[in-house]
Amino acid sequence: MIFGKNIKMRVIAMSIIGLLIYIKVTSTTTKAVINIPEITTEGIELIKSCEAFRSRPYICESGQLTIGYGFTRLYGRPVKWSDRITRAEADKILLETIESHCGFLKGYKISDNQYSAVCSLAYNIGPSAFERSSLKDKLDSGDLEGAVAEFRKWDKVYKGGRLVKCKGLSDRRQKEIELYNRTEEEYLWT
Fold it and tell me: Which residues are identified as catalytic?
């Protein structure tokens, strides 16, 4: 009888262990499938440093009236010379703008660093330009290595009706490429 109980206990224990292993494998698999990338602190800081906060309107390199962290629109309308913004307001608008410009990217199977780099680009060029970009085409096809080469195509501005290379944008694209290529482990140890 004792032997019989031990067999039952072993069967129950093995069943519980099997169930726990199944749950662990299933939850790990589910996490990999459902992994939703998030913008990193470094990605937000990259955008902030490249855009440089301004509390008063100014004319940016592309000739547009701009305020905050490169906002050409404020509260749903074009920026006006009389506008003012605090850093706290700009931080809030920045996060909302990132979400609206980059929310659709959450469907891609990319790392947080890749997502952050692509968000920086999409934020800078705008959602309609990004939607038409070859970089988005590469992401759509799953060509993550090919996507990185597309960043450099976005280093120009219109001046006097001509498309000219901009050093500030070239530098920004380089920083985005470095972030895109950085593995999560490198991010943790740098």
Answer: 51, 60
Give the pLDDT confidence of 18-30 residue by residue, as tens digits: 434 433 444 444 4
Q: Which tokens hold the place of 134?
A: 């070859």
User: Is 157 in a helix, a strand, or coil?
Assistant: strand
134 vs 107: CA distance, rounded Å: 17
The β-bridge relationship of strands 65-68 and 73-74 is unpaired
* Kind of pairing between the strands at 77-78 and 73-74: antiparallel
Domains of the chain: which residue ranges?
Answer: 38-189
CATH topology for 38-189?
A: Lysozyme (1.10.530)
Q: Where are the beta strands (DSSP E) in the chain?
A: 54-59, 65-68, 73-74, 77-78, 156-159, 162-165
Q: What pTM, to 2 d.p., does this model score?
A: 0.75
